[in-house]
Amino acid sequence: MTLEEKIIAALEQAKIGYEVVEHEPVYTNPAMAEALGVSEAETVKSLVLKTKEGRMIVLVLPGNKKVDWKKAAAGAKTKKVSFAKPEEVSGAVGCEVGCVPPFGHLTSIPIYMDPDLTQKDFIYFNPGVHDKSFKIKAWDLKKICKPAFVKM
């Protein structure tokens, strides 16, 4: 089962409505927002980080926000977090950097989310591929991710 199929199965099992939007391959949130005709704040940025202790986490935030490294570390209850290496990302979540989804990963990685994402009507995220985005209600993202919240 592909990562995209896992995400569809998770959405359907949770009875969450979704729309699949196909577009040209995108590798950044500004490009994704442009391709979809939405604001960058409506796109989801899912970053795979590594804690000082070597644990992997996924930080999920609006596409227009940057990582506050101190807040991310504090939220994950560690002294320091940094970007995971591309090969670590691929092994941990089942796709390459730039299209990491906010849930549905191959392993159960803890998810930390900026609560601002739940304030939108709809949000858009990549399902592990660069040429598709899924549109769901923002509140449903919280429901399916079951994240710890970290304000960025």
Quick rundown:
The chain has 152 residues and is α/β, with parallel strands linked by helices. It has 5 helices and 8 strands; from the N terminus they run αβαββαβαβββαβ. It has a 5-stranded mixed sheet with strand order 4-2-3-5-8. It has a 3-stranded antiparallel sheet with strand order 1-7-6.
Describe the protein's architecture and organization.
This protein is α/β, with parallel strands linked by helices. The chain has a single domain, classed as YbaK protein (Alpha-Beta Complex), CATH 3.90.960.10. It is 28% helix and 24% strand. It has a 5-stranded mixed beta sheet with strand order 4-2-3-5-8. Strands 1-7-6 form a 3-stranded antiparallel beta sheet. It starts with a helix and ends with a strand. The mean pLDDT is 94.
End-to-end span in angstroms?
33 Å
Identify the CATH homologous superfamily. Answer: YbaK/aminoacyl-tRNA synthetase-associated domain
Mean pLDDT: 94
Q: Based on helices, strands and strand pairing, what is the structural class?
A: alpha/beta
CATH architectural arrangement = Alpha-Beta Complex
Strand line-up across the major sheet: 4-2-3-5-8
Which descriptor suits the 3D outline? Answer: globular
Query: Remind me, CATH topology?
Result: YbaK protein
Helix residue percentage: 25-40%
One letter per element, helices H and strands E, the order comes to HEHEEHEHEEEHE
Q: Specify the oligomeric state.
A: single chain
Radius of gyration using CA atoms only: 14 Å
Number of strands: 8
Poorly predicted residue ranges: none
